[in-house]
Amino acid sequence: MKSLRGKIAVVAGATRGAGRAIAVMLGKAGATVYVTGRSVRGNPSPLKRSETIEETAEIINEQGGTGIAVKVDHTLEQEVKALFKRIEMEQGKLDILVNDVWGGDPLTNWDQPFWEHSLHNGLKMQTQAVHSHIITSHYAVPLMLKHKTGLVVEITDGVDYDYRGNLYYSLAKISAIHLAEAMAHDLKKHHITSVAVTPGFLRSEAMLDHFGVTEENWKEGAKIEPHFIASETPYYIAKGIAALSSDRDIFQKTGQILSSWELAKEYDFTDMDGAQPDWGDYFNKTFNGKTKE
Predict the structure, then answer these.
(1) Structural domains of the chain, with CATH
(2) Which residues, given as ranges, of the chain have pLDDT below 70?
(3) What NCBIfam families has UniProt attached to this entry (predicted)?
(4) What is the pTM (predicted TM-score) of this model?
(5) How far apart, in whole angstroms, are the C-alpha atoms of residue 4 and residue 289?
(6) Residues 109/117, Cβ–Cβ less than 8 Å
(7) Hey, CA dihedral for 131, 132, 138, 144, is it positive or negative?
(8) What is the pLDDT at residue 42?
(9) For residue range 197-207, what is the model confidence (pLDDT) as tens digits?
């Protein structure tokens, strides 16, 4: 139950959704987790949602873990640099980095081609979801190098390089995949693992609100969006990343694009309701007219 005892983790973008769940599961497994993001009590991010990094840290602590909330805007180099300087002083090392900074949903207009889409919003999406990841890894990885071990996880959307339906969104999510692959190449000789991991249709707090449902009656959302029936909680991918972090043979996966549904099969875990959703299989049957092999 405490397979990550003694490990130090940073989950960048842990205010809500997958980031919060990942931080909680890493803490539950015994890791000391630095929970970062922009939303703190009394000063929410531009998304104006109620969740905060303090709440995430409190959930970790209530479950017997160690959560440390640190307000960081990961697009600002000096704030990121200060975060890892603090971690070096307090812990002397870093074992796990999860790059989950996003904030691109309100910036994405799915109904507009790129030349009509707001250029400002499209470029801001790259700053928030790509540049922030690069800045964070730049300052995080040196804390792993001295110990010749570590795991960097890029949270993305999708398991390939196919177009996602919006140029700017697609560029951001595919960039996360390539970041994982490129970092894996540079980090290989240091025995540090870098992977990209995608959830399926994520049943986040924001998505539940969007459909006007709660986790208790979430299936009602499928009346509005039929594909919501195949959704998964943020804790599904979180369990997968906790399992990856505990895998002594994780380096064999470096450079790979992984998914919550495949990790569930490999490490034999279920979502919070006991189900084992498989978005990849559902997507292929629904949109490609074939079953995933």
Answers:
(1) 8-204+234-277 (3.40.50.720)
(2) 1, 289-293
(3) PRK08303.1
(4) 0.95
(5) 41
(6) yes
(7) negative
(8) 81
(9) 999 999 999 99
